[in-house]
Amino acid sequence: MTHRIVVLGAGYAGASAAGRLARRLHPDHTEITVVNAAPEFVERVRLHQLATGQHLTRRTLRDIFAGSGVRVRVARVTGVDVERRTVALDADEIGYDTLVYALGSTAADQGVPGVAEHAHDVAGSASALRLRERLADLDAGGTVLIVGGGLTGLEAATEIAEARPDLDVAIASRGGLGDWLDAGAQQHLAEVFDRLGIAVHAHTDVARVEATGVVTGDGRRIPAEVTVWSAGFAVHPIAAATTLTVAPSGQIVVDATMRSVSHPDVYAIGDAALAEGPGGKPLRMACASGVPMAWQAADAIAARLTGRPVPKVLLRYFNQCVSLGRRDGLIQFVTADDRTKAFHVRGRLAARYKELVCRGAAWLVSHPTLLLPTRRRRIDALAADGTARPSTSGV
């Protein structure tokens, strides 16, 4: 018998977890399978670049996991039965003994009418490519409105404005522009937006999206030939349809080891999980959360399967990286629980730092067999149902 570990999703979190598990566990009694709807790893943090016509490096999952022992299934997940321990795919189903749920998130319409019909987003590669085609069709003087003033909105607005200076770009934000940043960073952000000619509609709620723009909560109309929706993310509804304990957001509630609080054979990581961070605050949806969550889950799974102490690592934040086009950026330093410090880096140095972070994250995912530790521990015995009986003999 073999202990079957199934990882759902191969974004930053899922791919990182699969690679780390392959380095931790000996393949004699373990089988690791990654299920992903697309055959390639998507650099989600670069999708605003893809939308403006830039080339992104192509990385197929089969190439990434070649030689690691990780199996790749290109299929869409349609459901999970946590009682039968099976995952329904678009053509068949697959069984598991340990499940790592990392299906991520997609753009959230926040209940605003017209978003699905009229807005674009950069939450996935397909939607980013659709936006790319739409932007390419715009003539000089065309109008683009980004809705949402978070990290995604700031990056999308500046990337589009820099790549297409012939367009009239605007952003609508529920709060002030970058109002979570320190004062100096806010000033730099305002200067960048002014330099790029981006109109700012601060403290603006969008009540409806139409084909020709948006209607605000106070009845004003902001015209736009293209509306880009970046007002938050929502998880896929699959987990909420199971008997797993989920939060009102649909995220799977997990403990400090990323293990489901209701089903010990299920782990959840990345945007799909509600995990407590420093100060009791939930970890935010971000690559900066997803990768450490993946490492935490993989190490806990390996420890429990091989009878070793479960590592206790406090997940924390250090900074928030914002690209403002290709030649400018902001690095806002934060406390462990993600509160803004009065210190930041800006300009070209920040842009280079952000680029190094993006490249580093992609490199870590793309080289699962080159990283330490590589000591693979065995599971000596398996129960009749394939569950592990911890090893007592070392490696």
Describe it for me?
Helices cover 26% and strands 25% of the residues. The protein is of the alpha/beta class. The chain folds into 2 domains: 3-104 and 236-314 and 372-387, FAD/NAD(P)-binding domain (3-Layer(bba) Sandwich), CATH 3.50.50; 109-229, FAD/NAD(P)-binding domain (3-Layer(bba) Sandwich). Its cofactor is FAD. This is Oxidoreductase. Belongs to the NADH dehydrogenase family. It comes from Micromonospora zingiberis.
In short:
This protein has 395 residues and is an alpha/beta fold. The chain is 26% helix and 25% strand. Helix 1 (12-24) packs parallel to helix 8 (287-305) and helix 1 packs across helix 9 (348-366).
Question: What are the main properties of this structure?
Answer:
25% strand; disordered C terminus; five-stranded parallel beta sheet; FAD/NAD-binding_dom; oxidoreductase; 25 strands; 9 helices; Oxidoreductase; alpha/beta; flavoprotein; 395 residues
Q: How is this fold's topology laid out?
A:
Elements: E1 3-8, H1 12-24, E2 30-36, H2 47-51, H3 61-64, E3 71-74, E4 77-81, E5 86-89, E6 93-95, E7 98-101, E8 105-107, H4 115-118, E9 119-120, H5 125-137, E10 143-147, H6 151-163, E11 168-172, H7 183-196, E12 199-201, E13 206-210, E14 213-216, E15 221-223, E16 226-229, E17 233-235, E18 252-253, E19 266-268, E20 273-274, H8 287-305, E21 319-323, E22 329-334, E23 340-346, H9 348-366, E24 381-382, E25 388-389
Cofactor: FAD
Protein name: Oxidoreductase
Family: Belongs to the NADH dehydrogenase family.
